[in-house]
Write a structure and sequence with these properties.
Elements lengths: L1 H47 L23 E11 L2 E3 L15 E2 L6 E6 L7 H8 L3 E2 L2 E2 L2 E2 L5 E6 L2 E2 L13 E7 L1
Parallel strand pairs: 1-10
Antiparallel strand pairs: 1-2, 1-4, 3-4, 5-6, 6-7, 8-9, 8-10
């Protein structure tokens, strides 16, 4: 009986060791996955000096696209007319020596580039935010709607009243007109 008892004891101890090893393996896997996730989101901020990309947050002003792969790359053409005169949209809106924002320009042609490591519904308002100019249904830059002046917007030739909330789509041609 003592032989059966010691065999049973040995099997129980081996089973406990096996369960411990499995449990330890699971813990190691979880730690590695968490560490990888933390590295993915934190390392870009640490090495670039800018906040990390977060898939749940608005990346417009918190993300730089200087390096890495892009999940989104579209182009939109914007033209603005104020009191019958075209307004220049400057080159390098959203671009500086250390950071290129997901919504930016490269030249003064009015072409807006949307390049992002995350897919996100970037809006026309996001571009104006990056540009540092106010824009909504009551104002464009320093020009405000009043009894004598209106603000109109067309997307691909069709009137649109979404203004700053319009979600940019690849190939859009947007015309904003302010005047009497």
């Amino acid at each position: 009986m003592s032989s059966k008892s010691s065999d049973k004891k040995r099997r129980i101890e081996q089973e406990k060791k096996r369960e411990s090893a499995i449990g330890l393996g699971v813990v190691v896997i979880i730690v590695v996955l968490l560490g990888g996730a933390i590295w993915y989101f934190v390392a870009p901020a640490v090495f670039s000096g800018h906040p990390p990309t977060t898939p749940t947050g608005d990346p417009t002003l918190t993300t730089c696209i200087n390096e890495g792969s892009l999940a989104m790359h579209i182009h939109v053409r914007l033209s603005i007319t104020v009191n019958g005169q075209p307004v220049d949209i400057p080159a390098n809106v959203g671009v500086d020596a250390t950071c290129t924002r997901p919504v930016h320009t490269h030249d003064d042609t009015g072409e807006i580039h949307i390049e992002s490591p995350v897919v996100y519904p970037f809006t026309l308002g996001d571009f104006f935010t990056v540009w540092g100019k106010p824009f909504d249904n009551t104002q464009i830059m320093t020009y405000k709607v009043d009894l004598a002046h209106s603000l109109r917007m067309a997307v691909n030739g069709i009137p649109n009243n979404q203004f700053q909330n319009y979600v940019l789509q690849d190939g859009d041609v947007i015309q904003i007109t302010y005047g009497s």
